[in-house]
TrEMBL record:
This is Arsenate reductase. It catalyses: [glutaredoxin]-dithiol + arsenate + glutathione + H(+) = glutathionyl-S-S-[glutaredoxin] + arsenite + H2O. InterPro entries: Arsenate_reductase, Arsenate_reductase-like, Thioredoxin-like_sf. Belongs to the ArsC family. The lineage of its organism: Bacteria, Pseudomonadati, Pseudomonadota, Alphaproteobacteria, Hyphomicrobiales. GO terms for molecular function: arsenate reductase (glutaredoxin) activity. It is an enzyme of class 1 (oxidoreductase). It comes from Rhizobium esperanzae. PANTHER family: ARSENATE REDUCTASE, ARSENATE REDUCTASE-RELATED.
Amino acid sequence: MNVTIYHNPDCGTSRNTLAMIRNAGIEPTVIEYLASPPSRDELAKMIADAGLTVRQAIREKDTPYAELGLDDPNLTDDQLLEAMMKDPILINRPFVITPLGTRLARPSEAVLDILPDTHKGPFTKEDGEKVLDEHGQRLV
């Protein structure tokens, strides 16, 4: 299965998502989006395919979101996308694309909705939360 993850290795949610993909026996294409951001069209498509609004795909925490005035409800999607392109840290993560769909994997276990049921045993997130049992069955 062809899987792509827009990943930030400094993000625990992103690391957990990548580990769940690998637990399903899949080695995804990993794009560290801060160094190699998607194009504007790719980003807009990912957001739409995930069923989100552009505003829902913006990361507020630990970003210049407030400083840039991006909380202004009068800003258009084009203006928000432009800000995300100028400063990719504003792109929420991780986005995952599979043949079964596209998700912003927040929480990380949202990725399970678009992966095949091929998990190899249990999975526990970095914070100790158990997500899959010993049979690879979803607990949450």
